[in-house]
């Protein structure tokens, strides 16, 4: 493992300005997965868990359904059978732990006083990053293969192996051994922007500040050498779906047209998943067809902003000057997302799925603030040496979303020397991101529908017992008997996240101990309609999210849920449920806490000056609520939606 860095900084100043130029470059080699003995899926020998899978080669095959015992001599004892646990296949070390990375960055900055009142400035930033890493060839899980005696003779795999009387098996496999190394991921990003600014001193102690930014970002990822899943299924069971259905759609119906793909299997076009590399009978042509895949994505973004602010004194009251600031801001964003991947009807040369999306947004904002000194020291009012009040507001208008007004009020009260009390209240607003709301029907680069993962359905879910046929719920997705689909992506019906917060606190700088500063702040924050894609395990226990899971969907419901969305991967033959993992205004958050800050500065005669400090944040409560459901405590847990930290104490000394 190797790394290297190089950089330089150049600067020059003169009476009326200065210039700065900096460059930084770095190289890091890849860190291969097989170069570290601890990098493996099974960590039980270290006291951890086993994260291995049943995706093996030769394949781990089950007789008697997706939950049956494994029949494959390579992985079993003399009985020829193995239980479902523990899993024993590991492709972890095939991939790189860290990718190779090359970075280059440039910064240029210049400032110039044009006149006594006017200063101009400009910044230029450019950065580039390229990553390369080895990745796995890919896997298939729970794919059906047919043997002698199967209903459709053309689907019988000529290489089939299994116990006597078995007419089908469920196979899980990876392709790294059969195809050897060669799958790669290359990703990169280029970012550049220019910022210009101007500061101008106006009469009457006012000042105008102007700034503008123009920038862009281009990122991409290209994965090559991975297995074409539809090609593998076609060579395993004669169809492009995991269940081996002869009537399942290979793609979503277009204008009522259903696409099915089948192949009559022979020794020349079938895939041998039962024999190891040395004895495997898969033809060279089939191995080449397995690599007929493409997976490329690119995102280009630009931003243009302009901002003008004026600030200065308005007039004088007995307590001091009333000061004001007003301004306006305009921001224009645009983004293009392009994805190209192997389609579901065969290899990339005959079936590709491409998405080309464009989003844009323009935002105008107006803001203002007034600072009013209500009481000053010269007014000699007991316990009120100074009282200042701040009134502020901001209006934002989104051309694709609408407008909002948010105020903020604050005060500072100094009753005694060295003691200041303060408080504030305000509201906030966050519009959905472009890639959350998407375009027509919420379509984004992440939009698709695919086979659902595994999760537990509790008996408390409406209709669960009738669906499961038990009184204790059941398991959905994965290797269970109930297979379904998951809908991913954005939602054009998203509303804004809104927030309300207030705080109170004090600052103490005692005259009797110079250099000491003590600050304590109590805060309360409410966030409503936070945007996220709630996972299925949370949705099935939260009444406000029950509507995300549909049991026993009708063909019309399936068609409506998948309309306009690309299909990602093979689908189950029988769809018994639909789970919507699309983004939504999924939860509310209620949090309170205390922030502490204690600092002390002192000088010594011989050892220099010292600064000691301690700052900490204590969360008093951290409550989450899913869409009107029950409120539950998330303090000191995995966090809100397993994302936002909920540690009770954080600090720095």
**Globular, elongated, flat, extended or rod-shaped: what is the shape?**
elongated
CA gyration radius, whole angstroms? 32 Å
Instruction: Report the portion of residues in β strands.
Output: over 45%
The percent range for helix content is under 10%
Q: What is the helix tally?
A: 7
Distance between the termini: 34 Å
Mean pLDDT: 91
Unreliable stretches, pLDDT < 50, 5 or more residues?
Answer: none
Oligomer designation: single chain
Secondary-structure-based class equals mainly beta
Number of strands: 29
Largest sheet, strands/sense/barrel: 18 strands, antiparallel
Structure description:
With 653 residues, the protein is mainly beta. It contains seven helices and 29 strands. The strands form five sheets. The chain has an 18-stranded antiparallel beta sheet that branches. It has a four-stranded mixed beta sheet with strand order 18-21-25-24, covered by helices on one side. The protein has a three-stranded antiparallel beta sheet with strand order 4-9-8. The protein is elongated, with a radius of gyration of 32 Å. The mean pLDDT is 91.
Topology readout:
Elements: E1 3-14, E2 17-28, E3 31-32, E4 60-62, E5 96-98, E6 100-113, E7 118-134, E8 139-146, E9 168-174, H1 176-179, E10 184-201, E11 207-224, H2 229-237, H3 284-289, E12 295-317, E13 320-342, E14 352-375, E15 386-398, E16 402-416, E17 419-430, H4 434-437, E18 448-451, E19 455-457, H5 464-468, E20 474-476, E21 485-488, E22 497-508, E23 516-532, H6 536-539, E24 549-551, H7 555-562, E25 577-580, E26 584-603, E27 609-626, E28 631-633, E29 649-652
Parallel strand pairs: 21-25
Antiparallel strand pairs: 1-2, 2-6, 3-5, 4-9, 6-7, 7-10, 8-9, 10-11, 11-12, 12-13, 13-14, 14-15, 15-16, 16-17, 17-22, 18-21, 19-20, 22-23, 23-26, 24-25, 26-27, 27-28, 27-29
